[in-house]
Amino acid sequence: MSYSPPPRTPSGPRRRSLLASAAGAALLVGCSAGPDSAAGGASSVSARARARAARDSEGLLERYDAVLAAHPALAGPLEPLRAQVAAHRAAFAGHTGTATGTQAPASASAGSTAPADSAASSPALTVPAGEKDALAFLATAERSLADRRAKDLLDVPGELARLMASSAAAGAAHAYLLTEGAK
Question: Are 160 and 50 in contact, with CB atoms under 8 Å apart?
Fold first, then answer.
C-alpha cells in the first residue's frame, strides 16, 4: 500500500489570519500617540482643532452673555456654568498664542458687568423672551457643541483629545443642568 500525500496544504499563515493581523496592527498604530505623531501634519491638525474649539467656546460664551444681559435674574444659576465655559476657552486658546486666552479669567470674574459688554458686541444673537426658553436656547447650544467635540476628539492626538473629551463631558452636563433648570 502506498501512502498518498494529502491534498496541497498551504504553508505559512492563511489569508484570514494575515488580514486580521494587518487590521489589528492598523488599529494599534492609529491609537498610539508616539513622539512622531506630533510632527508635521498632526501638529497642524491639532492647532486647527484647538483654534476651532477656542472659537466655539467663545461663541458659547457670547450666548451666555446675551442670555445674562436679557435675563439678569438667571445670573445665579448661569454664572458657574459661564465660568466653566470661559475656563474651557482659556484652556483651548492658551496654547495657540492668542490674546483671548488671557482675557478669560478676567471676564469670568467680572460678574454681571461682562455679559452686558459682550452682548453689545454681538447683536446677531436673538435671545428668547422667556427664561425657560432662554435656558433651552443655552442647553441646545451646549448639547450641539458637546456632540461636535465628542466627534472631533477622534481626529486629534492625546492631550488635546483628553481636553476635548473633558470639555464635551462638561458641556453635556451643562445641557442636562440647563434642561432640568427649565422644568
Answer: yes
DSSP 119: H
Task: Using the Cα atoms of residue 153, residue 164, residue 134 and residue 119 in order, give the sign of their dihedral.
Answer: negative
| C-alpha cell, 39 | 510632527
In angstroms, rounded to a whole number, what is the distance separating the alpha carbons of residues 57 and 62? 9
Global pTM value: 0.64
d(CA 91, CA 114) in angstroms, rounded, equals 19
pLDDT digits (tens, 9 = 90+) for 37-92: 445 566 788 899 999 999 999 999 999 999 999 999 999 999 999 999 999 999 99
In the block, cell 498610539 appears at 32
Q: In angstroms, how far is the first alpha carbon of the chain from the final one?
A: 89
Confidence of residue 177 (pLDDT cuts 50, 70, 90): very high
The residue type found at 159 is E
Amino acid at 67: V
Separation between Cα atoms, residue 13 and residue 68, nearest integer Å: 66
> Which residues have C-beta within 8 Å of that of residue 68, sequence separation ≥ 6?
74, 75, 78, 79, 82, 112, 115, 116, 119
- Nearest 5°: the CA angle 74, 179, 88 is 70
